[in-house]
Structure formats: structure tokens, C-alpha cells
């Protein structure tokens, strides 16, 4: 039976230059590998050691990227190792099989959203009406499934985020603040549902996960064992669960540590 490893990507396994958290002296900084280019510019990185660990993991387990990114954004990433058989995009809205959308899965997701939460248009209208141009830079819709804002974080009022979260909660939506982005996502749109579907299809007897944001909490809870880095929304909230290990590492070195933990469990070499 295969081991299924379902991991968030951004700020979990891969990192923008702003999120690397290289606090050591420059001469001791790890060598980095660029894994994403956008508009001819390097955008996301992992350490070279992490790249080798991910390659090894691809041989030891069924590795499944599990991201809130759209399919187009995900396809910009060039991860080391074997191409993943499965990938989860749009926070569970799309399940990719050999790089192609599983349309049956997507139809099931759309049916749940129609039944269980307020429509996207209502959320878009609220965001457009209440967001202040002083700190709002972009308002976007992802895959016609959820909305997000790009903001000037230092100008963003904390109270506005709390008010948005309360408003969304009453309509079956959830809010997540990650770096310069605020996500408004329907509650039924979850990474965990897609991961359970892949576990069912593959007969995986062990599921390992990792993630850093509130949108990853359900993913972590759906696993046999999981890890969260020392940064991000979950760390800030001191979020914990019995099967989840909170790591001290922050930034790109946390991604390297997570991959080591995945490999130890896949190989059965964890100390007793």
C-alpha cells in the first residue's frame, strides 16, 4: 500500500525571496534552487538539499502537491523529482490527474458549493464595497471558485479583517490572511476532501501532510501525521492537534525539515 504525502507548497515547501527568512550570516546561507519563474523573473525557491529530499520522496511515496493556487499558477512551478501523478489546485476545487483536470471531481465540488454557501458574486460585491483603495492593490477571482485581495499589509486595518471574517462566517465562507493576500474561500472548498478522494483511489494506508495557513488546518487534521512550520497563520495562532508536530524552523529551512520528516516516516526510520 502506498504512502500518500500531501503538502501545501507556498511557505511550506517553496518560498518567495521575501519569505526565505535567511537569518544566518550571508556566508552560511544555504544554496538555493529556483523552482518557479514568472514573467522572466525567478519567483520561488527551495534549498538544494530540499530539492534532493523531494526527489528521494518521489521515489519513496506518492507525493501530491496540495495548493490554493490556480491551475495556471501551479503549472508555473517546476518541482524536482518525478512529475506528480496527482495534484490538488484551487484549495480542492480542481484535482489534476497526470496534469489534466478530473471533471467529475470538479462537478461534485460545484454541487456542494451551490448547496452549502453563499454565491461568489455576493462575496465579490462585499469586498468591492468595503475594501479601501488606500491599502487595496488588486481584487481577483480564482477559477470562479473563490476571491482574494492583494493588499499593502502595513496599511491594512486588523479590524477590517476581523469584520470580513465574521461576515463570511455567517455565509459559509472562511477568511485567511497570508502575507499580502487575503483569501475568502467557501467552507466546503477544502484540500482535505480532495486528499481523501486520492487516498481512496490509491488505497494509501498512511497519509502525511504539511501546511502553514488556516486553509491547511483541515488538510492536517485529515492526515495520520502532519507538520507545520514555525511561521504562518497556524504558528501565529499556536494551532495544535494530537497528530501534528509544530516545527521550530522558519522560512526556507522549514521546508527542508518538513521533507526530512516525510522521508523518515515513509522509510520507517523514525526513532522509537
TrEMBL record:
Listed Gene3D superfamilies: HAD superfamily/HAD-like (3.40.50.1000)
The protein's name in its UniProt record: HAD family hydrolase
Source organism of this protein record: Streptomyces achromogenes
Amino acid at each position: 500500500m502506498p504512502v500518500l504525502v500531501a503538502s501545501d507548497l507556498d511557505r511550506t515547501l517553496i518560498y518567495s525571496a521575501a519569505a526565505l527568512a535567511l537569518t544566518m550570516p550571508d556566508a552560511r546561507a544555504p544554496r538555493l534552487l529556483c523552482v518557479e519563474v514568472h514573467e522572466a523573473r525567478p519567483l520561488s525557491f527551495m534549498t538544494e538539499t530540499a530539492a534532493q529530499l523531494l526527489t528521494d520522496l518521489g521515489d519513496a511515496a506518492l507525493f501530491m502537491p496540495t495548493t490554493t493556487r490556480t491551475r495556471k499558477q501551479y503549472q508555473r512551478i517546476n518541482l524536482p523529482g518525478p512529475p506528480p501523478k496527482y495534484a490538488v489546485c484551487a484549495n480542492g476545487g480542481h484535482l489534476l490527474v497526470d496534469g489534466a483536470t478530473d471533471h467529475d471531481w470538479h462537478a461534485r465540488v460545484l454541487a456542494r458549493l451551490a448547496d452549502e454557501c453563499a454565491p461568489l458574486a455576493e462575496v465579490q460585491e462585499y469586498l468591492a464595497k468595503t475594501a479601501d483603495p488606500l491599502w487595496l492593490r488588486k481584487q481577483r477571482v480564482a477559477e470562479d471558485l473563490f476571491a482574494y485581495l492583494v493588499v499593502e499589509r502595513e496599511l491594512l486595518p486588523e479590524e477590517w479583517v476581523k469584520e470580513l471574517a465574521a461576515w463570511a462566517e455567517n455565509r459559509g465562507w472562511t477568511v485567511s490572511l497570508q502575507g499580502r493576500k487575503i483569501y475568502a474561500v467557501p467552507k466546503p472548498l477544502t484540500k482535505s476532501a480532495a486528499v481523501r478522494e486520492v487516498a481512496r483511489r490509491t488505497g494509501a494506508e498512511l497519509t502525511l501532510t504539511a501546511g502553514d495557513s488556516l486553509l491547511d488546518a483541515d488538510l492536517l487534521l485529515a492526515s495520520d501525521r502532519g507538520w507545520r512550520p514555525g511561521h504562518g497563520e497556524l504558528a501565529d495562532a499556536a494551532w495544535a492537534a494530537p497528530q501534528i508536530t509544530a516545527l521550530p524552523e522558519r522560512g526556507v529551512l522549514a521546508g527542508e525539515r518538513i521533507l526530512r520528516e516525510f522521508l523518515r516516516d515513509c522509510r520507517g526510520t523514525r526513532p522509537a
